[in-house]
Design a protein that fits this description.
This protein folds into five domains: 186 residues, P-loop containing nucleotide triphosphate hydrolases (Rossmann fold, 3-Layer(aba) Sandwich); 73 residues, Arc Repressor Mutant, subunit A, CATH 1.10.10.160; 203 residues, P-loop containing nucleotide triphosphate hydrolases (Rossmann fold); 159 residues, PCRA, domain 4 (Orthogonal Bundle); 73 residues, SH3 type barrels (Roll). The longest helix has 21 residues. It has 29 helices and 22 strands. The radius of gyration is 29 Å and the shape is globular. With 727 residues, the chain is an alpha/beta fold.
Length: 727
């Protein structure tokens, strides 16, 4: 059999992974090593060489964009449609499973998905019903608790309060919230995965059916899986399945949202026969950048271990700039970008990466002052815009009257005289009767429990939705969307807004019709086109799919930069306490994740990498005197070129850093960094108050001290500026 078209263009390591014998396999894929290429070629290999049926393949990743790219590449390789395969995101595939098996899942057939805003609105309704103060039970924090429990696979009935009254109340809220979701026939994002897992766990015959069907389970970005995702995948694969997982433990940067880098090691324990393949040849960055990245990440422990290399040249050394302050830092970046453009480069080839969103303000000012076009990557996406959510709420009510979140969003939008008192009456009736808001509103009107004017206004809204539902029946999807938008009154409502904002909202609503026109459901589905489109809209929201943009500098957080690449990258704000973040310095696991984040930022650069830090920075309204990030000191000195054009001198920053437990607190052999001040000394600062000395570093004018302040937390301060008093 001629398989040259599947293997041509692959390097030796990629060929080994693509043609691996049938069995569990873990592909450790370094940054820029062609992991998506390997995964898609593996699918083609399974079908053309191993004789696998397309319907026996389930491939999962984390974003709709990545899933679409995977699907497109597979179709190109095989010259056939990929409809028989299940290719999608975790949430998308779980949603597909629940639509097919809604009875087994205990859901209504037309269940709806809550986005984050709708979920918050529902929780607030729950808190009010429980007579709980939002100032004490902050919705964002309560939702974090609920979503975290679901990500760990825990229902409220399995939780113990451990004698903690706060936890006891959170469990009670979780229970009431689940009841509200069940009554409304809605599920949130975390529920999709948990419910899909429970369907397989609790229905062995259904699980066996899918195990027989999906013999080949392929997973991209495996290092980003959380607990319930890992359990869902391994439950499906079972002992006899053939999981083929691709990931990179050095690029696991989402621990704060539940990702477990430990799942890579757990996979090897659960599948001891799994073969490990390493993709180490990098096709993105220069040899110098890779040398820096390898040296940096080597400081993390517990890695599976790999070393990136390239067949290309070393390229330029990494430029390190020590700025006087944050404005000097921004000016340096602006000037270097100008030089890049003057040499024929494009602005879109440049990215400014930073750890905290708060850092962007000064850069934005500098770009505006210099008339440099820029774009902050990660603004509101199409399906997250308020006017789009308003239109979708009307459409969801047309599809399902029991959708309480949609009811509350648009019942008085545009304003139709339905006030808070009327809504409170309807909510109370819904709670008392354990019904939807829609049913409670109908009952309140029929029973005469509302004032005449309020009853008329509410009845007009119910009649409007019912009329729209009748009128769109049988229409094409885009005609349904257009008719509901026009009939809802949203367009004249937004036309009343002055200036470009109102015009932009109307254009977005019209674009929603275009989105519906181009939408086509994928794969097998029992859903109506409208239900499919509404599910698609929720699943698409929050994804980082950028609109077309002009030639402008890209600004983004380091987390947003994952998966991207740029010829020129600036890593800004590289100071201890800022990056690594102050809250991560004292915890080894958190510090290692910060280092992985720095590794990700470093490997975004293709040709040139700049690292900048400021000796003084005004951040969050406070002047801080920092020291270079410890990550800078972990880079090989030979790959660094220090620049400080204004002074025309080079200042070394690679001074030995005292190691914990190795005489920490001594500076250059001395007993302390200042008279009377030692490790453990209590000191007082004019602004930060009293604290305890934790560490010393450096000498002379550059000496600094780490103090844990009672009110302000831990800070590094320059001794020459801090004016600390020993107390």
């Amino acid at each position: 059999m001629d398989v040259s078209h599947l293997l041509d263009g692959l390097n030796d390591a990629q060929r080994q992974a693509v043609g691996a014998p049938l069995g569990a396999a873990l592909i450790l894929a370094g940054a820029g090593s062609g992991k998506t290429r390997v995964l898609t070629h593996r699918v083609a290999w399974l079908i053309e060489v191993e004789g696998a049926s397309p319907s026996s393949i389930l491939a999962v990743t984390f974003t709709n964009k990545a899933a679409a790219e995977m699907r497109s590449r597979i179709e190109t390789l095989l010259a056939m449609p990929s409809g028989a395969m299940w290719i999608g995101t975790f949430h998308g595939l779980a949603h597909r499973l629940l639509r097919l098996h809604w009875r087994e899942a205990g859901l209504p057939q037309n269940f709806q998905i809550l986005d984050s805003e709708d979920q918050t609105r529902l929780l607030r309704k729950v808190l009010k019903a429980m007579d709980l103060d939002e100032a004490r039970w902050v919705p964002r924090e309560v939702l974090w608790f609920i979503n975290n429990q679901k990500d760990e696979g825990r229902r409220p009935g399995s939780l113990k309060d451990e004698g903690d009254p706060t936890r006891r109340e959170l469990i009670r809220i979780y229970t009431t919230y689940e009841d509200a979701c069940r009554r409304g026939g809605v599920v949130d994002f975390a529920e999709l995965l948990l419910r899909a897992y429970e369907v397989w766990r609790d229905h062995p015959e259904l699980l066996e059916h899918y195990r027989q069907r999906f013999r080949h389970v392929l997973v991209d970005e495996f290092q980003d899986t959380n607990s319930i995702q890992y359990r869902w995948l391994t439950l499906l694969a079972g002992r006899d399945g053939i999981p083929f997982v691709v990931g990179d433990d050095d690029q696991s940067i989402y621990r704060w949202r539940g990702a477990r880098v430990e799942n890579l090691q757990q996979f090897r324990r659960d599948y001891p026969g799994a073969v490990l393949y390493k993709l180490e040849q990098n096709y993105r960055s220069t040899g110098t950048i890779l040398k820096a990245a390898n040296a940096l990440i080597a400081h993390n422990g517990g890695r599976l271990g790999k070393t990136l290399w390239t067949s290309g040249g070393d390229g330029e050394r990494i430029k390190l700039y020590a700025a006087f302050n944050e404005r000097d830092e921004a000016d340096f970046v602006v000037n270097r970008i100008k030089e890049w453009v003057e040499r024929g480069g494009a602005r879109r080839e440049v990215a400014v990466l930073y750890r905290s969103n708060a850092q962007s303000r000064v850069f934005e000012e500098a770009f505006l002052n210099s008339r440099t076009p820029y774009r902050v990557y990660g603004g509101l996406r199409f399906f997250e815009r308020a006017e789009i959510k308003d239109a979708l709420a009307y459409l969801r009510l047309v599809a399902s009257r029991a959708d309480d979140s949609s009811f509350e969003r648009v019942v008085n939008l545009p304003a139709r005289g339905i006030g808070a008192k009327t809504l409170d009456t309807v909510r109370d009736a819904a709670r008392a009767g354990s019904t939807s808001l829609w049913a409670a509103a109908q009952a309140a009107i029929a029973g005469g429990t509302l004032p005449q004017r309020a009853a008329q206004a509410l009845g007009a809204f119910l009649d409007l939705v019912e009329r729209l539902a009748r009128e769109v029946a049988g229409l094409e999807l885009h005609e349904q969307v257009d008719h509901v938008i026009q009939g809802s009154g949203l367009i004249p409502h937004f036309e009343k807004e002055r200036g470009d904002k109102g015009e932009g909202r109307v254009e977005n609503l019209l674009e929603l019709v275009s989105a519906a026109r181009g939408f086509s459901p994928e794969g097998e589905s029992e859903m109506s086109p409208l239900d499919s489109f509404l599910a698609h809209a929720v699943l698409e929201s929050g994804e980082g799919q950028a609109d077309p943009y002009e030639d402008c500098v890209q600004m983004m957080t380091l987390h947003s930069a994952k998966g991207l690449e740029f010829p020129v990258v600036f890593l800004a704000g590289m100071e201890d306490g800022l990056f690594p973040h102050q809250r991560s310095i004292g915890d080894l696991a958190s510090l290692e994740e910060e280092r992985r984040l720095c590794y990700v930022g470093t490997t975004r650069a293709m040709r040139q990498l700049y690292i900048t830090y400021a000796e003084q920075r005004r951040l969050y309204g406070v002047d801080q005197y920092g020291m270079p990030s410890r990550f800078i000191a972990e880079l090989p000195p030979e790959v660094i070129e220090e620049v400080r054009p204004r002074l025309k001198v080079s200042r070394p920053v690679f001074t030995p850093r005292p190691r914990a437990g190795a005489g920490g607190g001594r500076v250059d052999g001395g007993e302390s960094a200042a008279p009377g001040m030692r490790m453990g000394s209590r000191v007082r600062h004019a602004k930060f108050g009293d604290g305890v000395v934790l560490n010393f570093e450096g000498n002379g004018p550059q000496a600094r001290v780490q103090v844990n302040f009672e009110r302000q937390g831990t800070k590094w301060l320059m001794l020459s500026y801090a004016n600390l008093q020993v107390v």
